[in-house]
Design brief:
The chain is an alpha/beta fold. It has one domain: Glutaredoxin (3-Layer(aba) Sandwich), CATH 3.40.30. About 25% of the residues lie in helices and about 20% in strands. The chain is built from five helices and seven strands. The strands form two sheets. It has a five-stranded mixed beta sheet. The protein is globular, with a radius of gyration of 18 Å.
C-alpha cells in the first residue's frame, strides 16, 4: 500500500515545471532570462517578478531624490492603459528614499499616492544593482528602464529620460512589438 501511495504522489508532483525552473541560469542584461526577485510593495505585500510571466514587464529603477525619476513618476500608467493590464505591467523599483536610505513601505505609499501610480511600487536596494550587469540589475544611473518580454527574457533597456516624450514612444513601440 505504501508503494502505491508513493507512486501516486510522485505522479502528482511531476506536473509541468514553470519556465524559470527549466533555465540553467538567469541574468541581468539583454537577451538573458531575467533573474527573479521578491520585493515589498506600497501595500506591504510581497511581489514576485515571475508572477507577471506572460506579460510584458517594464521595470523602472528609480530613486525618490532623482528629479527625472519624479518627472516620469506615473509614465507607466499610460502604457498599461494603452495595452491593458492583462498584457503589460509597469513596476517601479525604488532604490533610495530622499536621504539615500532603502525605502520603507511608507516611502512607497507616498511615492504611489503623490504620482497617482496604479501599479506596483517596490522597495529595492542598491545591493540588487551592478553597473556591469554581472552580479545584479545593470543600473548605473536613474531612472533605468528595463523591458522584459512575455517569456521573461530581457529585451532592452535605457538609462535616463533624455529622449523626453520620445522615451515613452520607444517603450510603447517595444511593448507593441513584444505583444505581436
Amino acid at each position: 500500500m505504501t508503494g502505491l501511495f508513493l507512486f501516486l504522489f510522485s505522479l502528482m508532483s511531476c506536473g509541468p515545471k514553470a519556465p524559470w525552473e527549466k533555465w540553467d541560469e538567469c541574468g541581468y542584461t539583454a537577451e538573458e532570462y531575467a533573474c527573479g526577485f521578491t520585493l515589498t510593495d506600497q501595500d506591504g505585500a510581497e511581489v514576485e517578478l515571475y508572477d507577471h510571466y506572460e506579460k510584458v514587464i517594464i521595470l523602472d529603477f528609480s530613486t525618490m531624490w532623482c528629479g527625472v525619476c519624479q518627472y516620469i513618476g506615473n509614465a507607466g500608467d499610460a502604457i498599461v492603459e494603452e495595452y491593458g493590464e492583462e498584457n503589460v505591467v509597469w513596476i517601479t523599483v525604488l532604490i533610495d528614499d530622499f536621504t539615500g536610505d532603502d525605502p520603507d513601505v511608507e516611502d512607497l505609499q507616498q511615492w504611489a499616492d503623490y504620482f497617482e501610480i496604479k501599479g506596483p511600487v517596490l522597495a529595492g536596494s542598491g545591493g540588487m544593482l551592478d553597473a556591469t550587469g554581472a552580479d545584479g540589475w545593470q543600473v548605473d544611473s536613474f531612472p533605468t528602464i528595463v523591458v522584459i518580454d512575455t517569456e521573461l527574457r530581457i529585451y532592452s533597456q535605457f538609462e535616463g529620460w533624455t529622449l523626453g516624450p520620445e522615451a515613452g514612444q520607444l517603450i510603447s513601440a517595444w511593448t507593441k512589438e513584444l505583444l505581436r
